[in-house]
Amino acid sequence: EKSLSQSILSVAPSATMAMTQLARDLRAQGRDIIGLSSGESDFDTPAHIGDAAAKAIADGKTRYTAVDGIPELKEAIVEKFQRENGLPYSTAEINVSPGGKPVIFNALAVTLNPSDEVIIPAPCWVSYPGMVSLLGAKPVIVPCGVDSGFRLTAEALEAAITPKTKWLMLNSPSNPTGSAYSREDLAALAVVLRRHPDILVLCDDIYEHLVYDGFQFTTLASVAPDLKGRVLTMNGVSKAYAMTGWRIGYAGGPDWLIKAMAKYMGQTTSNPASISQWAALEALSGSQDFIAKARKAYAARRKDVVKAINSIDGLSCREPEGAFYAFFDCREVLGGRLASDTDFTTALLEDSGVALVPGSAFHAPGFVRLSYAADPKLLKEACARLNTFCKSL
Ligand code: PLP
Q1: Residues of the domain holding 374
Q2: Which residue among 156, 192, 338, 345 is the one 20 to 30 A from 92 at the CA level?
């Protein structure tokens, strides 16, 4: 154990994965546990996508591929960016990696030097600060309160920038808050970014298709085409097509960055699974019916869950524009038996058998994340247990 590196010792384990594992362990002991801690669709991967994978196996497409993706999939991604985002990328500007996570990690790995800073608006996805720390660079967490809809404002961005700023991480819709940036929000950030031409921007659009009540998703490179040369527009099939286990993420960005990411992959992971790439090709270029079906289901659950949480004394939840998370404030019920959001989620799991994730894991103490990508019956039961639990405090 004493042989472990400084970098691995510098990061905490992924809190969402830890909570999900704890829920699994308790269930294995026979406890009745409702697990709402994981960021994963409860739907199965659409059958036509699975069929494409089976065909790839039958056709012998089981060998190493081009390191950063087969040409056919890169073409489909080029078309996707054009069709859905109005973004003109060429195949030389596309990276395919074994998941969205590696896309982000590889982009950071090929650009960050030890003293570099990465601006991360918080509440933030657990892995951004983790990845930056693993690479020996400095995460600069910028708290964004519920008053700004948990969004980074132009003023807060300007104040966080230093000569060492290398990247800005933007995640819309957000994990954990579900907040999304409008065209106007992004345009305001673009004004600041134009004053700082050396800053790169990573747009994590993995929840793009999960937006509700007519919210129009848009991304920075579409809103500010003049910045496109320093934006990495990242996306993936995990959340949009219920394909978390297939491990395919992708991005469009400047060719110098894409080339460096391929070089990095060539010495580390090599290509994403060949079979998953053929499946992802079908996901992006075949029927898109699943997206509308899933969005409709999530939209209804979001309404019910947010309403149920807001009806509980002491809890309050902002209605999110997207993703599949409700991120609620539990500060009013703290102070007695429970001192923190972590105490809250631990006690809730032990007393009531509901697994949620404490906001601290997302750099937002006092809040809690509930994933509503689950059976509506379970969601209803979980909200009832949450109500009973809060009354007991
Ligand atoms: N970005 C965000 C904000 C996420 O929530 C996730 C998954 O939880 C990812 C990226 C990575 O997704 P994957 O590696 O499954 O493609």
Answers
A1: 6-44+290-391
A2: 192
Domain end, chosen from 252, 285, 318, is at 285
Name the pTM for this structure: 0.96
Q: What is the mean pLDDT of each run of 10 residues along the chain (393 residues)?
A: 90 79 90 92 96 98 98 98 98 98 98 97 96 96 96 98 98 98 98 98 98 97 98 98 98 98 97 98 98 97 98 97 98 94 94 95 97 96 98 93
End-to-end CA distance of the chain: 41
* Mutational pocket test of ligand 1: of 124, 239, 269, the residue with most ligand atoms within 8 Å of the beta carbon: 239
- Report ipTM for this prediction: 0.99
Q: Residues 39, 86: one domain?
A: no
CATH at 26: 3.90.1150.10
Q: Are residues 163 and 17 in the same domain?
A: no
Looking at ligand 1, which residue's alpha carbon is closest to its atom 4?
175
CB-CB contact of 304 with 379 (8 Å): yes
Residue 78 Cα, ligand 1 centroid: separation in angstroms? 21
Q: Which residues pair with 322 in a beta bridge?
A: 211
Rounded Cα gap, residues 315 and 331, in angstroms: 8
